[in-house]
Description:
With 227 residues, the protein is α+β, with helices and mostly antiparallel strands. Helices cover 17% and strands 41% of the residues.
Amino acid sequence: xxxxxxxxxxxxxxxxxxxxxxxxxxxxxxxxxxxxxxxxxxxxxxxxxxxxxxxxxxxxxxxxxxxxxxxxxxxxxxxxxxxxxxxxxxxxxxxxxxxxxxxxxxxxxxxxxxxxxxxxxxxxxxxxxxxxxxxxxxxxxxxxxxxxxxxxxxxxxxxxxxxxxxxxxxxxxxxxxxxxxxxxxxxxxxxxxxxxxxxxxxxxxxxxxxxxxxxxxxxxxxxxxxx
Length: 227
């Protein structure tokens, strides 16, 4: 009888110890999972962003630790190519670039509002190399993306706020210098903000035609392409 009681107690002891071991392992696993969650300055969780791009590229934007420093990386996957690049060294929400569907054949754009300003900035990246292109100015205010013709109309803050058309494929910039003689003719362009409503209306072999959202569709400004 005593032997039976001892055997029962021994089984209970072993069973309880195994349960505690499982509990400890589970807690460690949960702790590890919590450690991989990143938060911004407001305490909101920073989530990864994944997008499928043209030419069979996959883009992943994600938070990470790099030598104990919190960073935002982006990863480009295409077949056997799988490369990761530093995107930003801050978790502050207003400075974190994100993808918003601007995708060209060999390039893509990321956006940010530049720290809570009223302007809307973009950065253009080469899919194959991960390099930023169009780097002559750090701050480029988005106006219009012509995905069909692979053109970008933008204001460059670092270039005296001049207006440009950038041909993504030819890698050429064309200055859009709208003279006062043109703006004075229309009521809708007689203000300091008319350029921010501009967009690429149509394209020919030699010219870009710029129109304005606040104007009649018949009002357009012709710009000779920079060859």
